[in-house]
Amino acid sequence: MHLPASSQASRAFTLIELLVVVAIIAILAGLLLPALSRAKLQGDRVACLNNLRQVGLASSLYLDDHAGRVPTMMAYGGRRDDYASLERNSDATVLYGGIPSLLKLGDGRSWRCPADKILRGKIPRLTNDLVSYPYRWVVAWNTLTHDTLKESHFVRPSGQMLFNDIVDTHYTRSHDQLPKGQPLINGVFLDGHADKLRVVFRNPHFGMRYDWSWFFYGPDGRVNRGSPNTGDDVKTGYDVP
Predict the structure, then answer these.
(1) What is the pLDDT of residues 22-50, one digit of tens each?
(2) Taking the model in full, what pTM does it have?
(3) Residues 68, 80: Cα–Cα separation, whole Å
């Protein structure tokens, strides 16, 4: 049976309207999605800094409870002035059951950055779970080179990071621990405050890639060039000039 011409025209017009609506939705989605993506990225940055503030508060409480002594690698197999022992036991700086567990931060949520692509949403709860914010390598090393490393030994507590993003997940989003491009990372400092910080030190032993492991500036106030490593001592090296 054939429909009247008017009915055919009406049905065709409805289809055109539907296509127009779909096109409008697609355009709006194209406009809104980037804005939503930026909003999520900003939200992740804020959440990450809030996590680090909690880490900073817990660090301050730890220092108060231990007469100013910072967590030491001596408790995790490190030996005095033995760099190899630090390397062998480096898991204690990045695993929840290592140094992070000493701060007693509840169920581990504060140790996971929401933008961390390594953990991928996993909240550290078990001994061998990775954390998003490792214990700073240079501080871990100094707990083996000083007798009972204390807060008072740090030359600039407000300018020396203690824990930080393992990679730049928020700003350049390189997801490389030793990137070629200059990263911007979130970190918590010895005085307990959290902030973002641009990595300045470039490690000559890793192809001049950017490296947050060592302090960025040496005792002369100049950027640490790595040969010699002028950012290897908490008494003289720092990150914020």
Answers:
(1) 877 878 777 766 655 666 777 888 999 99
(2) 0.84
(3) 20
